[in-house]
Amino acid sequence: MNSKLPHLETTIFTVMSKLANQHQAINLAQGFPDFDPHSSLIESLNYYSYQNYNQYAPMIGVEKLRNFISEKTERFHHTIYHPEQEITITNGASQAIFTAIAAVIEKGDEVIIFEPAYDLYKPAVEMFGGIVKPIQLTYPDYNIDYESLKSKVTSQTKLIIFNNPNNPSGKIFKAEDLVQIEAILKDKNCYIISDEVYEHMTFDAYEHQSFARIPSLKDRTFITASFGKLCHVTGWKVGYVLAGKELMNEFRKVHQYNVFSVHTPSQYAIADYLDDENNYLELNNFFQEKRDYFTKGLSSTKFELIPAEGTYFVSASFKNYSELSDREFAKKLTIENKVATIPFSAFYHDTFDEKVIRFCFAKQKETLDSALEKLNKL
Ligand code: PMP
Ligand code: GLN
């Protein structure tokens, strides 16, 4: 068959989860919690399903959920997003990002992506004829090289994709970073996607700096988020996008013919659950404890850890164990040592290999204990 996408392979998350299942390895690869969401959320989902909330939701999403998002964004980031015009509920953050790209990218447009980058961005841009201009974050601090950014932003640049807190590095970009980006983009015409799915997983008193705090760019910025992360329900695939009114109008032109709307009972259940703010404000501490527990357990190994300031991932160099490529090492670790991880090269446009693998610590204590026991025997 004449493939439209000859270079695209199966996503690394599917590959590593499959390998973990085949070899009964502990799956610290794909990012998802191995514990149940709060029972009240499940009860609420059942309630709405039985009460016959089973037909199409409004195209832009359930009003109660959009109102909640508007209030939360104003409370934390002091910018008002109008629930009717500037907020849309999506089929996870993935669909929000893909749809935003579809809405603005035309053939030949340049798109800046900071690497290591979540694996969805580049293929999505290329599917619409865009040309990715990667900028490598500095190693090992994963900072932005602003000289490089200045030189790469040209009149051809249509979009910059930014991810904060950053998957996979665990880096949190600070207020100064947003200010620098704002200054560089001030006189330019380019759009921004700020992917903020880990907004409530920030550690050590770091505060999440949302692009919602940069009102001068509101008309050009899509902010994407995920209730999968916020409510421990990655399988529900519910997320949202924020954007200025005109930009959101363009987004919805695509959204209406792509998915039209999102699973109805989930939206009501999530809105009820998040009425209790403790259900999301406690996430920072909850995941920080897991990060501390897991990294303490790794301190007796020869892995060299990259500090995780946010997200539910921690990454580490394995160069004290092996000279294999990161993909080969991750494969071997899964098959022989029964711990599955993600090789970092999956997050670069070429096969750049810094000998780093990513662990997901959104797991029960028992899962982390079994993984640590195996990793300490390497
Ligand atoms: N962006 C990043 C950085 C992610 O890590 C993920 C997945 N965890 C997504 C987007 C997609 O989120 P969702 O599962 O809500 O589609
Ligand atoms: N975002 C998750 C991760 O980084 C994976 C999501 C997926 O499998 N598509 O692990």
TrEMBL record:
Location of the Aminotransferase class I/classII large domain: 25-375
Domain of life according to the entry: Bacteria
Keywords: Aminotransferase, Pyridoxal phosphate, Transferase
InterPro entries, A to Z: Aminotransferase_I/II_large, Kynurenine-oxoglutarate_AT, PyrdxlP-dep_Trfase, PyrdxlP-dep_Trfase_major, PyrdxlP-dep_Trfase_small
Cofactor(s) for this UniProt protein: pyridoxal 5'-phosphate
GO MF terms held by the record: kynurenine-oxoglutarate transaminase activity; pyridoxal phosphate binding
GO cellular component: cytoplasm
Record has Transferase as a keyword: yes
Stated family: Belongs to the class-I pyridoxal-phosphate-dependent aminotransferase family.
UniProt name for this protein: Aminotransferase class I/II-fold pyridoxal phosphate-dependent enzyme
Organism: Faecalibacter rhinopitheci
